[in-house]
Structure formats: structure tokens, C-alpha cells
């Protein structure tokens, strides 16, 4: 997915400078008051410095294609193959534990999980094959590939990166474990921090505490946390550093009611399942009232 939009560079540079200043301030505050919401008291087990994440409510989730966001949008998530949006906080999507559709050739066959000689695919996404995180050597090799992508996100001008499919082990038939994936997650968060990017947990609500405290993630991207009654798993760990995407086909009640729920994150949107662009008749983007 590729896309870009045009804004004045001076404005973009100014906004990006402000956001990075917020990140530095957040790190300093965490050092002073380790008990503040969203600040880990012990820090990540990998010794990596956490990176601050700005307070936002208006955001857009554009994995189905890049387009110019609404004027008041503060944060945009796009695929790593797309350009970041100028003038807003930009999050880079990386499929870190499974192959991205069409990218199978980018991976050495010995880094793919196999069963009876055949690659193990995600049953819900059959064109995504699970990466084999079962050994330290394989995790190092996977991190080398992903590290170039993460650094590419930073070079392109993204401010943060979200890592998808942290729960791939649950689809591996017991060939992989949470500890295998957590070990890789620690490496990826460390690479992101070294590149100056905030590192985001994507889903995996039930493992939030370990991903926050051990791997050192800075924020969370949740999908359908209201639909599955998982929102507090993220907000208890990350405070306001949580963005949530609900989808029209699984919304448990009206979006207005979901927004009014005390457990819902402050940053929440409703989107169509395929995340299409505004020129598609199926496009949906609704935001909670401010």
C-alpha cells in the first residue's frame, strides 16, 4: 500500500518537533515519578529506554490504503510500505510474527514454521505464514529482517511502530510459545527504541502485562477491545497511551453507547472491516464525540 498527501513542510517539521519534545518530556516524567499512569516502575527487562507517546483522541487507521486525513486528526497509522502523513504523529504497521500477503519470498524458508514439510498458515489469513520463533538463532535472524524494516520506518519519518500478530504462537499447534514470541518482541522493541521510535503492542490483551513490563512496549493498538470486553487490560497497563479500532460488523451496541462506556479508551474509532479508502462505498470512519 502506497500513498502520500501534501502539506507545508515547515508546518510538518514544527508539529513533529513538538511531538518528539512531548516524548522526551514523558521519559523524564517517568524517571521522576515511576508510579504515574503508563510509566513502568521497573522498566523493560531488555534494558531498553521506553519512548513517550502523545495524548491523542482524533486518529485514523489507514491500513487499507493511504489518504488525506481529516484536518483535526492528530495520529495516523499506515503500512510500512506507505509514506507517513506529514504534520501528524505517524505510526508504522509491521506484520512482525507472520508474513505479509505477497511477501513470502522475502523470508528464508528455514524461518517459516512448517508442519509435515508444509508452511503453517494463519487459518483466518491463509496467505500469511507463521514465522518460526522457537529458537534464539531463528529469532535473531527474524529480528535482522524486521530490524531493517523498523529502521526504514524511522528513515521514512514515522514516529512509532506497531507490531502485529504477537499471538501467532496460539495458532502454531503448540510448536511456539508465548515465551518464544516475547523474546522476539523484546528484541523488536529494543530496535525500535534505538531508532527513536515508540514501540506498540498490537492486540494480545491477555498478555499485556508481560508485553508492557518485560518487552518494553510504550503504547497499545487494540482492535475491538469493546466488542470483546478487553479495554481495561490495555488501559490499566498503558493509561491513555491506547488507541482502539472497533469494526462495524462486530459492534456489540451503538457506537455512541460504546464511546460513553467508562472503560473505553479516550482514543477510539469505528471503521469498516477492510479499512478501505473514502472513495469506496463501504468506507466508514466515525469518532467518539470529544
Count of all domains = 1
Largest sheet: 9 strands, mixed
**Count the strands?**
13
Q: Encode the helix/strand succession as letters.
A: HEEEEEEEHEHEHEHEHEE
**Low-confidence parts:** 1-46
User: For the record, what CATH class applies?
Assistant: Alpha Beta
For the largest beta sheet, what order do the strands appear in spatially?
Answer: 1-2-3-8-9-10-11-12-13
How many helices? The count is 6
Nearest-angstrom radius of gyration? 18 Å
- Helix/sheet category: alpha/beta
In CATH terms, what is the fold-level topology? TIM Barrel
Strand fraction band? 15-25%
N→C terminal distance? 31 Å
Shape: globular
Mean pLDDT: 87
CATH superfamily: Aldolase class I
Q: Approximately how much helix is present in the residues?
A: 25-40%
Protein name: Glycoside-hydrolase family GH114 TIM-barrel domain-containing protein
Pfam families: Glyco_hydro_114
InterPro entries: Aldolase_TIM (IPR013785), GH (IPR017853), GH114_TIM-barrel (IPR004352)
Can you describe this structure?
This is Glycoside-hydrolase family GH114 TIM-barrel domain-containing protein. Residues 59-276 form the Glycoside-hydrolase family GH114 TIM-barrel domain. The radius of gyration is 18 Å and the shape is globular. It has six helices and 13 strands. It has one domain: TIM Barrel, CATH 3.20.20. The protein has a nine-stranded mixed β-sheet. A two-stranded antiparallel sheet has the order 4-5. A two-stranded antiparallel sheet has the order 6-7. The chain is of the alpha/beta class.
Amino acid at each position: 500500500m502506497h500513498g502520500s498527501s501534501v502539506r507545508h513542510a515547515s508546518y510538518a517539521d514544527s508539529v513533529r518537533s513538538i511531538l518528539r519534545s512531548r516524548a522526551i518530556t514523558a521519559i523524564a516524567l517517568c524517571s521522576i515519578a515511576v508510579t504515574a499512569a503508563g510509566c513502568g516502575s521497573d522498566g523493560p527487562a531488555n534494558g531498553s529506554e521506553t519512548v513517550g507517546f502523545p495524548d491523542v483522541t482524533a486518529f485514523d487507521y489507514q491500513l487499507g490504503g493511504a489518504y488525506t486525513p481529516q484536518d483535526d486528526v492528530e495520529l495516523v497509522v499506515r503500512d510500512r510500505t506507505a509514506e507517513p502523513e506529514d504534520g501528524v504523529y505517524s505510526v508504522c504497521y509491521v506484520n512482525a510474527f507472520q508474513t505479509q500477503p505477497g511477501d513470502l519470498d522475502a523470508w528464508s524458508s528455514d524461518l517459516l514454521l512448517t508442519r509435515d514439510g508444509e508452511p503453517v498458515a494463519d487459518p483466518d489469513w491463509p496467505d500469511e505464514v507463521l514465522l518460526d520463533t522457537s529458537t534464539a538463532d531463528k529469532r535473531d535472524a527474524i529480528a535482522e529482517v524486521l530490524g531493517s524494516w523498523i529502521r526504514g520506518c524511522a528513515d521514512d519519518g514515522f514516529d512509532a511502530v506497531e507490531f502485529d500478530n504477537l499471538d501467532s504462537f496460539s495458532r502454531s499447534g503448540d510448536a511456539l510459545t508465548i515465551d518464544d514470541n516475547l523474546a522476539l518482541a523484546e528484541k523488536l522493541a529494543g530496535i525500535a527504541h534505538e531508532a527513536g521510535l515508540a514501540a506498540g503492542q498490537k492486540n494480545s490483551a491477555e498478555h499485556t502485562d508481560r508485553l508492557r513490563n518485560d518487552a518494553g512496549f510504550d503504547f497499545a493498538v487494540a482492535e475491538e477491545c469493546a466488542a470483546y470486553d478487553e479495554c481495561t487490560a490495555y488501559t490499566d497497563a498503558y493509561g491513555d497511551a491506547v488507541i482502539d479500532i472497533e469494526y462495524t460488523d462486530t459492534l456489540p451496541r451503538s457506537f455512541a453507547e460504546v464511546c460513553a462506556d467508562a472503560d473505553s479508551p479516550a482514543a477510539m474509532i469505528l471503521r469498516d472491516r477492510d479499512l478501505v479508502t473514502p472513495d469506496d462505498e463501504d468506507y466508514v470512519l466515525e469518532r467518539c464525540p470529544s
